[in-house]
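Hello forum,

I keep getting stuck at the same step: I have a sequence, I want structure tokens, and every attempt I make locally crashes halfway through. Rather than fight my setup again tonight, could one of you with a working pipeline run this one for me? It's a single chain of 170 residues.
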Amino acid sequence: LLQQWPGEAIRLAMLTTHYRQPLNWTEAGVREAKRTLDHWYELTGAVEPAESPSEQVIEALCDDLNTPRALAALHELRRAAAHGDREAAASLKASARFVGLLSKKAEEWSAWRPASAKVDEKKVAELIEARAQARRARKFDEADRIRDELGRMGVAIKDSPEGTTWEVVQ
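Reply #2:
Ran it on my machine without issues. Output:
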């Protein structure tokens, strides 16, 4: 399982179910957990964690280890952080770390690849650079063609002000 998914994604998928309930384990659930963590890492990457986790997370965990409620509190913090609230982002980072999530640097997280990923990283880097050059030259048809070629290789790209990141699509 750890060959296909980061440990934190597995942990988050498991935390969605209260310990007194049967675990509903599906690949879709762990895939969604990975996407959630991708977003949380993106929001909190450049932010220092708050000094302590949010009170809502602590209260939820003190209520018979109610991890679904704790995760709901984390999602509320994510919502505020996504709207530019840096305090919420700092609290999200501290609170997620408190339950064993967001323990890596954002760059380490985004660099993770499944063991089954057979992608030529050098070729991907070359194509991403060629796409960036095409975009700078306003050759958008060429940039789209390169994006599509990466997609056929099983690579999804994401553009941000900091640059382009990529991941193997599972």
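Residues 7-111 form a domain with the Four Helix Bundle (Hemerythrin (Met), subunit A) fold (CATH 1.20.120). If your local run keeps crashing, start a new thread with the error log.
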